[in-house]
Specification:
two-stranded parallel ribbon, mainly alpha, Rossmann fold
């Protein structure tokens, strides 16, 4: 599951490390599902609405056409609530959208691809950074 920062990078840099990694993974392992949470799609579309740009809109269409947009299932809600409560209880909050994205990845047993160090605070979340 790709986070907003990774997809944004793929949009801006179609020959960058994240885009090349996604392409290589898709070719080498066609059964691996490259996906984004609907929350990530909301963030991407918000960015496009906030600062309209035909080039970025075309990049969004090109990039997301190769990804599955996963809807939130009811199993995400208790994971989200538990995650937010746990992190807040130890003084390590995570913003609401990031907590939803993390809970969604956990619910799907997916590896989250992100360059955001905040996700490392999420217990049990598998992470990869394709921008290193």
């Amino acid at each position: 599951m790709l986070d907003t920062h990774i997809v944004s990078d793929m949009m801006r840099n179609p020959n960058g490390p994240a885009a090349l990694r996604a392409k290589a993974l898709s070719q080498a392992t066609p059964d691996v599902l490259l996906q984004i949470s609907v929350i990530v799609d909301c963030e991407l579309q918000f960015g496009l609405q906030r600062k309209p740009n035909p080039r970025l809109s075309a990049a969004y269409e090109r990039t997301t056409s190769n990804l599955t947009i996963s809807a939130l299932e009811p199993t995400v809600a208790p994971l989200y609530a538990s995650l937010r409560a746990t992190l807040a209880g130890v003084g390590m909050g995570l913003d609401a959208n990031d907590a939803l994205i993390a809970a969604h990845a956990l619910a799907l047993d997916a590896t989250l691809v992100s360059a955001d160090a905040a996700f490392a605070r999420v217990p049990g979340l598998r992470l990869e950074n394709w921008l290193d």
